[in-house]
Amino acid sequence: MDLLSVVVGIGLVLFFYFVVYSKPQDDEWKKLPSFEEYLDDHPECETDDVKCVTCFSCGSDTVDIVPVTTDGDPRQKHVCSVCQKALFKSKGKIWWAESN
C-alpha cells in the first residue's frame, strides 16, 4: 500500500467523522425530543393540522426542517423559522435512497 492510498483513506475517514457523521452534532440531535415527546412536553403547541405544530418559545407555526450535517443526512432538526429554536428531531429518507 503506498502513501497516497493511506493519506486518501485517512482523509475519507476524517471527512465521514467530522462532516457526514459529526459526533458533536449527533449528540445534540439525540438530546432533542421526538415529535410525540415535543407534544407531550408542550401540549399547547398542538394544532388542528396533525402535521403542524407551533413553537413553544414564540408561538410561530412556521417550522424549517434542517438536516443535521449535509443534505444527504437522514437526521433532521425541526427549527422555528422565527426564533431559530430547535423544537424536535426526526429521521427522514436520504434523497438518493428513496425508491420510486
Topology of helices and strands:
Elements: H1 3-21, H2 23-31, H3 35-41, E1 63-67, E2 75-80, E3 86-91
Antiparallel strand pairs: 1-2, 2-3
Protein architecture, described:
Helix content is 35%, strand content 17%. It is of the alpha+beta class. It has one domain. A hairpin with a 5-residue loop joins strand 2 and strand 3. The protein is elongated. The relative contact order is 0.16.
User: Which structural category do the helix and sheet elements fall into?
Assistant: alpha+beta
* CA-based shape: elongated
| Count of helical stretches | 3
Looking across the biggest beta sheet, what order are the strands in? 1-2-3
Query: Between the first and last Cα atoms, what is the distance in angstroms?
Result: 41 Å
Poorly predicted residue ranges: 95-100
Average pLDDT, all residues: 86
Strand composition percent: 15-25%
Number of domains: 1
Q: For the CA atoms, what is the radius of gyration?
A: 18 Å
Number-wise, the strands total: 3
Helical fraction equals 25-40%
List SSEs in N-to-C order. HHHEEE
* Biggest beta sheet summary: 3 strands, antiparallel
Index terms:
single chain, 100 residues, alpha+beta, 17% strand, 3 helices, 3 strands, membrane, elongated, 3-stranded antiparallel beta sheet, transmembrane helix
